[in-house]
Each structure stands twice: as C-alpha cells, then as structure tokens.
Amino acid sequence: MPKPEKDWRDLISQPVHAKMNEMKDVFVPMRDGVKLACDIFHPDADGKFPALVAFQAFGKNHEDLQFRFPPQARPSPLWDGTMEGGNTGYLVARGYAHVIVDARGTGDSEGEYYGVMGAGRGGEGRDIYDVVEWLARQPWCDGNIGMIGVSYLAAMQVLGAGEQPPHLKAIFPEGGHYDMYEMCYQDGIMWMMPRAFMEGRGGDGGIVLTRRASYMKDTLSKEEFERRVRERLDDPDCKNFPVFHQLLCYPHMAPLWLDFILNPCDGPFYAANKPANAFDKIKIPVHLGAQWGRGWVVDGTINGFNALKGPKRLVLRSAPPMQERPFHQFHDEIVRWYDHWLKGNDTGVMDGPPIRVFVHGIDEWRDEHEWPLARTQWTKFYLRSRHRLLLEPEPFEADVVPPDGFYQPALTVTNTVASVKYRTPPLPEDTELTGPGALYLHASIDTDDTNWIVRVSDIDPQGNRMVTTTGWLKASHREVDPARSRPWAPHHPNARRVPVRPGETIEYAIKIYPFATVFRKGHSIELEIRSIEAETDVDPAMPPESGHLNSGRSTVHKIFRDRTHRSHLLMPLIPRR
To answer: Fewer CB within 10 Å, N or C, the chain?
Structure first.
C-alpha cells in the first residue's frame, strides 16, 4: 500500500523550547534620535533565532494579559480588540523570538503619534525599517525577521514591507485596514468603529497616546481649522448626532477622531503612509487573509493581493469577521509560513493554487487561481414591479410601472427604519454567487443628500434571513472614476462632495463587497435598499460600535425600474461544475 500523505502540521516546528528569555523595556533608536520601547521574548537556549515583530499602538504591557487571561470571542464584554500581537508562548516554544513594539508616541515610546497610523511624525513604515534592521544585529537573532498581528498590526506589516528593510524576509498580515479613508468612510458613509479604538469606547481598548493632539489643528491655519469645524457642524448628519456636536464644539476632547470627522473626503490627510499604496512596492513573500463579514476589509485585502508582485497567498476565511482576543488563532498556519521563509524548511506552503476560499451555504473550502474567478458569469438581476428581482428587464415605461419608494424621517423623530425590498422567486437549483458585485440604481431624492445602504440576503423557505453582503454609498459621493472601474467594481474617488439636485433622477453605481455564498435550492435572493441603520442591524460578532453614521436628513427616496431606467443588481454567478 502507498504511504499516506504527510499532513503539513507534521512538517512545522514543534514545541521544543520549554523556557523563555524575557527582556522588558528595551529601547530601539530611530534614525531621527527618537527611541521606541519594545519587549523581547526568545527561547532560553543556545543559538540564534528568527524574530517576529508585532508593531502596535495599544501598549506593549497590555499584551502581557495573554499570560493570565483566556481568549474571548465577540460579543463577550471582555473582548478587547487591541490585544492583536499573537501568542508569545506558542511562538517562542517553536523557536521564534517575539518582539512587541510600541509605535512612536504611544505606550512607553518617545516621539509623537499624529494623524493616520502615526504618519504625521516620522511615519511608522520608516520606524519599522529601523526596528527590523536593529533586531537583525542583536546577538540572539539570526538575521531573519518576519512580522505578526491582525487588524492595525496587519496594516503595519504592509507599511513596513513597503519600505523594503533588507532583513524583513516575509509577512503574514491578516484582517487589516489598508485604505485609511475606507477604514472610516465606506464611499462617503462614516463607519463608527475606528472611534472605538481611538477613544477606547464600547469595551474596546484605545491607542495609548503619550500626547493627545490633533494633526489638523496643529497643521492647518486657525481660519481653515475653524472653517472645517463649522462646515461639519452645519452638516445634518453631524449636528443631529449629539456626541459629534459635543466633540466639534470642544475639539480637544478626542483629537484623533476629530481629524477623521474633519476629513469626510479622501485626500492628503489619508494619503500619507496609506498601506494600500505600499503593496506594489513589496518584494518579499506575503500571506494575506481576511474573514468574511466586513466587506471593506475583504475588498482591501483582495486588492492588495492582486497588486503584489512577489510570492503570495490569500485566504478568505469564514465569518464571523473578528478573531478572539488575545489573538491566538491559526498560529499553526503562521508558523508554517515562517518555517518556510525564515527557517528554510519546505513546509509545502507554496504548493497548489494561491487562493483559498471558504464558501458559505455549503460551508466548504475551495482552492482558486485568481480573483475574480475566471469562470464568473456576470449576471444582471433586474428590479421589477411588485418587488420582484428577475433576470428579465422591465418592458414598460414609468407611466405604466411608476417608481417604488420609501420615506425615511430623521432619527430625531423616529426609530423606525424604512426600506424597499426586491426578491427572486425560489431558486430552482443551488446557485453560487462568489465575487464582487454592483447595484446600478436609478433613483431620485427630495433633499441634497442621503445614504444608500444595500443588503443582499439569503432567504430560506421559512423566511429566515441571512445577510450575505452589503454596499454603501453617500449620494453626494456618487462620482465614478471610469479608469479605475469595472462593471462589477465601480470606483468612487470620494475626492469631493457633489450635492444632489432634489427631484433629479440619477444612476448610482453602488459597490457590493465581495462574498462567497451558495443559495440553496428553494431559497431566494433578496435585495434591500434603505438609508439608515438600526442598532439591531449590527452583528454582535462585529467589534464595538460597528454601526454607521446615519443620514440626518428626512428624505423621500424614489426607485425607478422601468424600460428607460433599468435598475439592476450585477452578481457574480459561478456555474456548477
């Protein structure tokens, strides 16, 4: 009989180092004289070891909680998203040094943390370069450096690799926010979660600043700063949200979050040290990953993967979108990656297709060669009268099939969410949708702006609903860049706000974030369109305060879907094999 194929888990480093050498409060000099604080853990044994760097802004001493605190999953009130640096004991036992660094201006490090990802002073990409090269010279290090950590720490890995430090040999970013504008605004609609880690809200920890300062206030003229504050105070979305009104009246309260509020459009503030701009500069091997559930994170991860030029892997994991904290999951995959690239052991990590996708509905893993999938059949589902979603377009004009619509009062007077829904008939067979999509919506409103919030759901025969993906677009951010767009991926530059002329019928191209779901036979695909989000809409498995800033305007929305205005949902249909 042939010998059974060996499992890759048998090929990776095993836990052989029982003791750990700990060096606390080590200070690393940067090129400008600033010193960053770090804690270093490595095997208490002879020899030299590769090092994995966790570069974070939440206080290295906070990571010590991993040694005496069991991991927590959302929605546990003990879940704290800032413990993202990895399991020290697991890594050291397998022959790695684990180095936890306080970013400039945070924790015990010197310097100032400003703006987006600390880019206003020094820039964390350059600081990572200096940390990596300093570590490579230490007597316990063998000169092979990698990085570790999720979310913020994943973005730091991409920034650091983009600087090309010679001794950084590979990275493993997971669940990172790589476009800093989209981290806070999904095509113009503000996502509130960054406020949680900037201010330490909702049970989440926050950035441990050594000095609280607003980059905008320190760099803009007094007149320009005050103009921006007045402009945001006049915006109904902000002035009808009491917490923002207070913050704008007293800008010193939360300076990091204030900087994001004062920049509702993409531009220079977000461009400095944007990790998304570093992918095409990276030459070392990269293992990217994300979990389904936060579409903008998945989308940014896929875009980064497609921009990489060197050896690469992509894993799109099952929902929910948040790992446990302290972070400890899929460390066997991390060690497999680094055993291959830092230790020179053939763990088979580069064997097979470069993409691994978890498909919901059938709950199966599948290997793929590209994204979007080459076999995709881009399929239009047309919005039709009587709230139907059909493959055939409407044959009649608006005088016969007048528009649908909904009126959404501002939340100052109601908690009721209004919407309009369209649904396919029960599907005659299992139907797979895997990839990105888009909603082309012909609509008018009676105000100068609104939020378009789109949800695509799987409806089972009993009427139970599972949201599979979402889309977001502020009406005033509707401009599309044709050069960077595809029919299934409209790109909004978000460079300026263009008010809507009340009553004008406009075609909105709304990006639908990537997903992978098999809708089973007898299920239906449902499209829902609304303008606000209820508290109950936020998945409890998401991080704290994961809702969006709702539209503060009371607005009538009309949805046109006649022969002239063929509103449709473009979906990535995958043919059955």
So the answer is: N
Q: Give CA–CA dist 36/54, Å, rounded.
A: 13
Measured CA to CA, the distance from residue 452 to residue 472 in angstroms comes to 6
Phi, psi of 169 (to 5 degrees): -100, -20
How far does CA 442 lie from the centroid of its chain?
Answer: 28
The confidence score (pLDDT) of residue 327 equals 92
E strand intervals along 205-301: 286-291
User: 1 pLDDT exceeds 60?
Assistant: no
- The average pLDDT across 233-252 equals 91
Distance CA 554, CA 552 (A): 7
pLDDT for the residue 9: 73
59 CB-near residues (< 8 Å, 6+ apart): 82, 102, 106, 107, 108, 205, 208
- The pLDDT tens digits for 167-176 are 999 999 999 9
| Distance from chain centroid for Cα 115 | 19
291 contacts: CB under 8 Å, gap ≥ 6:
175, 298, 316, 317, 318, 319, 320, 321, 322, 323
Question: What does residue 227 show for φ and ψ, rounded to 5 degrees?
Answer: -65, -45
Beta bridge partners of 209: 106
Residue 3 has phi, psi (to 5 degrees) of -70, 140
Distance CA 333, CA 88 (A): 15
Nearest to 215 by CA among 273, 157, 169, 170: 273
Say if strands 555-560 and 189-190 run parallel, antiparallel, or are unpaired.
Answer: unpaired
Helix (H) or strand (E) holding 575: none
Cross-strand bridge partners of residue 490: none
Other Cβ atoms less than 10 A from the Cβ of 200: the count is 18
The maximal CA–CA distance of the chain, rounded, in angstroms, is 83
Q: Residues 416, 433: contact at Cβ < 8 Å?
A: no
What ranges in 251-371 are assigned the alpha helix state H?
255-261, 268-271, 295-307, 331-341
Interval 54-63 mean pLDDT:
95
Residue 2: partners with Cβ closer than 8 Å, 6 or more residues away: none
> How much is the pTM?
0.95
Q: Is 51 helix (H, G, I), strand (E, B) or coil?
A: strand
Contact 511, 492 (CB under 8 A): yes
Amino acid at 214: S
- CA distances to 7, 310, 338, 339, 354 from 348, rounded to whole Å, are 10, 17, 12, 10, 12
Task: For residue 147, list its beta bridge partners.
Answer: 53
H-helix or E-strand containing 561?
A: none
Integer-rounded Cα Rg, in Å, for the chain is 25
CA 48, 54, 59, 65 dihedral sign is negative
User: What does the buried/exposed string (b/e) look like for 106-137 if buried means 16 or more CB atoms within 10 Å of the residue's CB?
Assistant: bbbbbbbbbbbbbbbbbbbbbbbbbbbbbbbe
pLDDT classification of 60: cutoffs 50, 70, 90: very high
Instruction: Report the residue count for the chain.
Output: 577
Q: Residue 49's beta-bridge partner residues? A: 141
Q: Is 99 in contact with 39 (CB distance < 8 Å)? A: yes
Q: Centre a 10 Å sphere on the Cβ of residue 385 and count the other Cβ atoms it contains.
A: 16
Residue with tokens 């709702």: 550
Tally of CA atoms within 13 A in the half-sphere of 129 that contains its CB: 15
